[in-house]
Specification:
With about 280 residues, the protein is of the alpha/beta class. It has twelve helices and seven strands.
Length: about 280
């Protein structure tokens, strides 16, 4: 069962819970809703997608109108949340980078967390090239590396123009995960020391290795308080349900409180840079 199918089954299970909490059996709900009982069964077992109007009727019959916004968001996620990487990148990674730039430009408050690598907005060209080359090789997608790198680098204009406020959190481990070679990594770490501090558009922090555990998470982007984008090995997941967004708000808040900033963050980067250069600051 793929992600979309699992999400559809989960939506059906939630609707079944609402019906049961209302003390109705399937035939009673169907009669009150004005449709055949088999439709209720198919929806609850994830075999048929309800419409948004179906959800409104379901909530009215079950006296659960407060649940409607989350259910509608879940339905829209079932339709569109799982966009397989192979489909996203079928025409190359350049298009994916352009799509990211459009989404970022529409956002007033962009928050990014990545536990393993430096996020794209703070990458050097050689580091970005190493990241995208790895993605292309792993997924076996169209090799448009040169244009994809250019598109990724152009996204960094958001740190210089426009009204978007950007906050970036990374784990300390991201400073040590190797992309390219020591020269690429040293260049990336020096770049962080240069760009991550003193920019009024950017708030940058590092979650130390010994920080207290908050919760399990991969990388994610929060676009204002309307959407979360989570990248997995096989898919890109879009979250819009208010109850799920609240979990990511709490996760961000927890990570934010564990992170270090300013001089403490600089010290962690400088330590990682020393490890790449042996204390010699290569140019």
């Amino acid at each position: 069962m793929n992600g979309a199918a699992r999400a559809k089954v989960a939506l059906g299970a939630r609707l079944r819970e609402l019906r049961q909490d209302a003390g109705l059996d399937g035939r009673q709900l169907s009669t009150a809703a004005g449709w055949h009982w088999s439709k209720t069964s198919r929806i609850e077992h994830g075999k048929q997608m309800p419409s948004e109007s179906d959800l409104a009727v379901w909530c009215r019959v079950c006296d659960a109108t407060l649940a409607l916004p989350d259910l509608v968001a879940a339905l829209r996620n079932v339709r569109a949340q799982w966009a397989e990487w192979r489909r996203i990148t079928a025409a190359g990674h350049t298009r994916r980078q352009q799509r990211g730039r459009e989404l970022e430009s529409e956002t007033r408050e962009l928050r990014i967390y990545n536990p393993t690598i430096v996020p794209g907005l703070l990458q050097t060209e050689p580091y970005a090239r190493a990241v995208l080359a790895q993605c292309i090789g792993f997924l076996g997608t169209l090799d448009d590396l040169d244009t994809a790198v250019l598109a990724r680098m152009s996204r960094q204009n958001i740190l210089r123009t426009g009204g978007t406020r950007v906050a970036v959190l990374i784990n300390e481990a991201a400073l040590h995960t190797t992309l390219g070679d020591d020269e690429v990594m040293a260049g990336q770490l020096r770049h962080l020391l240069y760009v991550a501090f003193g920019n009024p558009r950017l708030h940058f922090g590092i979650v130390p290795l010994r920080a207290e555990f908050v919760y399990l998470s991969g990388s994610f982007h929060l676009f204002d308080r309307r959407q979360a984008l989570i990248e997995t090995a096989s898919a890109e997941l879009t979250i819009t349900a208010p109850s799920e967004l609240e979990l990511y708000e709490r996760l961000w808040g927890g990570l934010h409180t564990k992170a270090v900033y300013g001089d403490a963050a600089r010290a962690l980067i400088a330590n990682a840079l020393d490890g790449r250069t042996g204390g010699v600051q290569l140019r």
